[in-house]
Amino acid sequence: MATPYLTLDTNAADAEPNRRRTRGINDALGLLLRLSDLDLHDELRPSDVFERIVFDVLEQLRCDALAPAHLRGLRANVDAAFEAWSLDARAQRVTENRFAMLVFTTTYMVRARLMGRTLPEDVDELIEATRGHLGPLIGHALRELPATVNDQRAYAAPAREIARLVGEVADDSTESSLAISDVASRHQLLVPADWDTGDTDPTTSDVDGLAPGSPDDEPVGLSLERVGDYRVFTRDYDVETSGAALFRADKLRRLRNELDEMERAQAVSAPRLAQRLLALFGAPTEDDWHFGRDHGVLDGRRLGQLIASPAHADVFKQRRVHHSSNTAITFLVDNSGSMKRQ
To answer: Angle formed by the axes of helices 16-35 and 249-266, to 10°?
Structure first.
């Protein structure tokens, strides 16, 4: 199943935050195996790849919501795994990818509805625009989810509707010249690397660039085996090691704690800083559509609605304008102190 927040980061396996995340992933998978009929889920899944991602996420969230209240440790572990994924997604600039942002926002909207949670302030600011777009579209189905959470088949009906509507928004994004190749380069924001899309040929790309593949695959034309007149003579004596393997586990934990304390002491909110910089360097940009308008460009998918309900003329769409920036801001961190004079 393509549940993004159950993707395990295998880096720094000895670090304490990663162990907590691993326990959360194990507990969430245990809830899935205990509370979900996977054969039924497979039967009810949509065929579209992007819709299947959303549908999988909603089923996992249903199981998370059914976690017994007295198992406080389990619930805390699942929350920790979810929060770790959320932090990773924000660190990997989830807002720069329309597909990833749709999954990220839908996940938070459904989780808040099923568990009665309020969103963290920085997340609330981050998803505000996307949530404002999705809210009118999926609000009716979103309201049905809590009442059906104990019945998987009944729950699947509004879940499929949400997946379908979010999938339509994703399709509309491609019409606005979204760089879909970016999805493939950061697909782990959406799905685990080993997720099976059901494609019979593992060498072919799946719909919209969402086929699984190694995130370390080099883009075509960027191989360093041969550059100009240079070529690799031999790799027989190459040694590659992870930075985490060069230190003892107890030192890694101590350094991790020191770094966390320094970060908390600075009280810097990266999303909030990004929003301020966007306001400073941004400019109005057309990037998407507003649907359900009473004038504008005719939306061909809503012609059936016009025939069924002639009194409702909200069958047009308008270009959406939002504040965006094509400016890249880089912060140089001089860890070694070699640039003190500069």
So the answer is: 90
